[in-house]
Design brief:
Layout (H helix, E strand, L loop, with lengths): L2 E5 L7 H18 L2 E5 L3 H7 L2 E6 L2 E7 H6 L4 H8 L9 H17 L1 H4 L9 E3 L5 E3 L2
Parallel strand pairs: 1-2
Antiparallel strand pairs: 3-4, 4-6, 5-6
Helix pairs in contact: 4-5
Length: about 140
C-alpha cells in the first residue's frame, strides 16, 4: 500500500514498546515510501512521527501545517491550548509554562470569536503561508 491509516496505533502499549513500534513504522515508511495518516492525541508522538500536522476541534480542522509551524508558530487558539497543556518535565520550566498557559487561556476568553463562529464552530481554513492554514474569519 502507499497509504496506511494508523488510528492511535500505540496508545495501549507500554512506552518502551511504543518507541520500538514507532521506530519500526518510520523504517518501513522510508523503505517502502509510505504515507501515514497518523491519528493520535499524544502530541509528543505526533511530533516524532509527522512531517505535516492537522489539528482538529469538534470534527473540523482548525490548523494545518508542517510540524515545525504547528509546534513553533501555532496560530489557532485551540492549537495553542493543546501545546500549552503539554507537561514539561523540567521543574525549572514550570513557572514559565504556567505563565504561558495563563496567557493562552486569557487569549481564549478574550478572543473566542476570532476563532469560532456564533455556534462555536471553527471557521474554514485560510492560507497564511505556502504550507500553513488556519481556521479564521
Amino acid at each position: 500500500p502507499k497509504l496506511i491509516i494508523a488510528d492511535e496505533p500505540v496508545s495501549a502499549l507500554d512506552v518502551s514498546v511504543q518507541a520500538q513500534v514507532l521506530n519500526f513504522m518510520k523504517e518501513i515508511q522510508k523503505e517502502f515510501q509510505l504515507t501515514y495518516l497518523f491519528i493520535s492525541h499524544d502530541l509528543g508522538i505526533i511530533r516524532h512521527m509527522c512531517d505535516r500536522i492537522g489539528i482538529m476541534y469538534r470534527g473540523r480542522f482548525v490548523e494545518e501545517g508542517t510540524s515545525e509551524e504547528i509546534f513553533n508558530n501555532p496560530q489557532h487558539i485551540y492549537t495553542k491550548r493543546l501545546l500549552s497543556a503539554i507537561p514539561n518535565a523540567d521543574p525549572r520550566q514550570r513557572k514559565q509554562q504556567l505563565k504561558l498557559r495563563e496567557e493562552v487561556e486569557r487569549e481564549y476568553k478574550q478572543s473566542y470569536h476570532r476563532y469560532f463562529d456564533d455556534e462555536g464552530k471553527a471557521y474554514p481554513l485560510k492560507k497564511i503561508s505556502k504550507t500553513h492554514f488556519v481556521a479564521i474569519p
